[in-house]
Amino acid sequence: MLVTQKKQYALRAIFELAKQQGEEPVKTSTIAEAQSIPLRFLEVIMGQLKRAGLVDSKRGFFGGYTLTRSPDQIRVGDIFRILDREDNVDACMACASKGNCPFLGGCVFMDLWDRALQAMDTIYDQTTIQTLIEQEARLTGTNE
After folding, report:
1. Cα–Cα distance between 69 and 73 in angstroms, integer?
2. Which UniProt keywords are given for this protein, alphabetically ordered (predicted)?
């Protein structure tokens, strides 16, 4: 699972939602400002996350987004897979698309790329949003 800018933004958005989790929905402008995400790009990402059921939204002046699951039940890999499905990603680490690879079927590096991807996927799936919140608290010396 390659980490694109879009995936980084989605991860930061979910992270910010989790940090601000409460009774009130969080506005996209608040998320965008806190995590330095371009607002228009964030709106597209939040739409994808909503369609996938990871976030819910409320319209209106007091509207915004909320998580549909607790931060300890959301894995980084979950977020990345949602975006891969939405974007129809089918790529290997070295090629833009496996279908266009001139070495497809005979690539000496394919096993290396696949093992590296599996290792990354394992780390992403072992890391929850709650883990990241706790790590930030340790790094900044705050207890949230």
Report:
1. 6
2. DNA-binding
